[in-house]
Write a structure and sequence with these properties.
Layout lengths: L28 E3 L2 E6 L27 E6 L1 E3 L4 E3 L4 H10 L3 E7 L2 E9 L4 E7 L5 E9 L5 E8 L17 E7 L5 E9 L5 E6 L13 E2 L17 E3 L23 H4 L5 E3 L5 E14 L4 E4 L18 E12 L4 E11 L7 E4 L14 E3 L1 E3 L3 E6 L20 E4 L4 E6 L4 E9 L5 E7 L9 E2 L1
Parallel strand pairs: 2-22, 3-15
Antiparallel strand pairs: 1-2, 3-6, 4-5, 6-7, 7-8, 8-9, 9-10, 10-11, 10-14, 11-12, 12-13, 16-17, 16-29, 17-19, 18-24, 19-20, 20-28, 21-27, 23-27, 24-26, 25-26, 27-28
């Protein structure tokens, strides 16, 4: 069995003044072959459901009965049994190395909870099991740089009855996500709930108004391999079952990861051919777009109508200077016509890029991201802009529109420039950071997340 997939929902497009700090905002966009969520950053002003009773999927009552711990690769809900048991020594070695492992917690011989751990992903999740052996409530935490575990989200499923499959429909009945600042302080709790009569709603709450009668502990120490029972409310004496001294070859679950780059190098290489599942072949064409002056090296990316002095620049800076800009379009080989503008690149160093990662903005922290999620600045004019942070006010009253089929437009002041590139749709702006072999920034790529390339492969 596998853990539930990230939810397939479309971005809610809100202005920066009203956008909710939420990954439960129904946020999904097709990109790089993944369904991913983008996270706008500013809290909603009011809770429109403040007077309503929220649906709940509560954890079972705590118990102080004896607990047996089974270290393993994971849980098989159909067979109601641990997968690939391992010894405590192997689990401790996996824990120390940041690798995957799981523990099943039994009371009276009955599995009550499963804990999935992977410190390489900063992730630990306690799953509670129902009488059918199905995981129905997950309490996920992230391990922050200070070594503490902090609450990330709570998800709960309701099953129609006996025989219903685990994670039936993939969408949890309730989902509560804790939103934090860069220093781990809680800012909001976002809420998504599926209503019993149909429909759903989303809102946000203060931490003090947690939407359940009992609020899970937020800031806890990282337990030892045999110490996870306490976080599941199982406080009785603990014994650990013996197991093989072997690391399992496979694990029945995967840890969550933020959206990962896919074919960014190929997307920004002139002449690359992508094959689309429907049989079409798309070719990448590079359009030189001049140069951009970055007197501070702090780059802003987003909708030109929304960029201002208060906008957060990318956290990784370039040395102050002037850099080449290129626009990349994809052309359909059969018709010879351009289909989309796919990307825009600022080249910082004339060296090969050896790795790609999300280019976070100042104040972002990857530990806020769920599986397949990314931070994005909402765009509602289907137009993107790149500009130095110190020069953005110089273009506050400028007309940043493009005309005709021009792939870009450059606006210039005495000391800096704004490069404006028309996209294909509203949505969210995602920037990839390419690093050179020594780890320094090599390029920034504004990914337009073209639907035709979502499942395409180079070749």
């Amino acid at each position: 069995m596998t853990s539930p997939a990230p939810e397939n929902r479309s971005p809610t497009l809100l202005s920066r003044r009203t956008a909710i700090l939420s990954g439960v905002l129904g946020v999904s966009v097709l990109a790089a072959g993944l369904v991913a969520q983008w996270l706008p950053r500013e809290p909603r002003a009011a809770d429109p459901f403040a007077g309503q009773e929220l649906p709940q999927v509560p954890a079972p009552d705590p118990t102080d009965e004896p607990v047996e711990v089974v270290c393993c690769a994971g849980w098989d809900s159909a067979a109601r049994t641990p997968v690939s048991p391992m010894s405590e020594a192997v689990a401790r070695a996996q824990d120390a190395a940041g690798a995957q492992y799981a523990v099943v917690l039994l009371v009276g011989g009955v599995a009550r909870a499963v804990v999935e751990v992977c410190w390489a992903a900063h992730h630990a999740e306690v799953w509670f099991l129902d009488g059918e052996g199905r995981r129905y409530r997950g309490v996920a935490r992230r391990r922050w740089p200070d070594g503490r575990l902090r609450l990330f989200e709570v998800r709960g499923w309701r099953y129609a009855g006996k025989g219903a499959q685990e994670f039936d429909g993939d969408r949890p009945a309730v989902r509560f996500r804790v939103r934090r600042g860069a220093t781990a302080g809680i800012e909001k709790v976002s809420v998504h709930a599926e209503l019993a009569g149909g429909g759903s709603f989303e809102t946000s709450r203060e931490w003090e108004r947690w939407p359940e009668p009992t609020r899970p502990p937020d800031d806890v120490a990282v337990p030892a391999v045999n110490g996870w029972a306490a976080l599941a409310g199982l406080t009785g004496p603990v014994t650990v079952r013996s197991g093989p001294d072997e690391v399992p070859a496979e694990f029945p679950w995967r840890p969550p990861h933020p959206l990962r780059p896919r074919h960014v190098t190929e997307l920004t290489t002139d002449g690359t051919r992508f094959r689309v599942p429907d049989g079409r072949v798309l070719s990448v064409r590079r359009v030189p777009a001049g140069r951009i002056r970055l007197p501070s090296g702090r780059l802003l990316a987003g909708d030109p109508g929304w960029l201002d002095a208060g906008s957060a620049p990318l956290a990784v800076t370039a040395p102050p200077g002037e850099y080449a800009v290129d626009v990349f379009q994809v052309w359909e080989n059969r018709t010879g016509r351009s289909t989309w503008t796919a990307a825009c690149r600022v080249t910082v160093a004339d060296e090969p890029v050896t790795s790609w990662e999300q280019a976070l903005r100042a104040g972002d922290h990857e530990l806020e991201l769920g599986d397949g999620e990314f931070f994005g600045n909402p765009v509602d004019t289907a137009t993107f802009a790149l500009v130095d942070h110190t020069g953005v006010t110089e273009f506050a009253d400028a007309d940043a529109t493009t005309t005709g089929e021009a792939p870009y437009r450059t606006l210039s002041s005495a000391r800096t420039d704004m490069v404006v590139v028309p996209g294909w749709s509203d949505g969210a702006c995602l920037v990839w950071l390419g690093r050179t072999e020594d780890g320094s920034p090599g390029s920034f790529v504004l990914d337009f997340r073209v639907p035709d390339l979502a499942d395409a492969e180079p070749g």
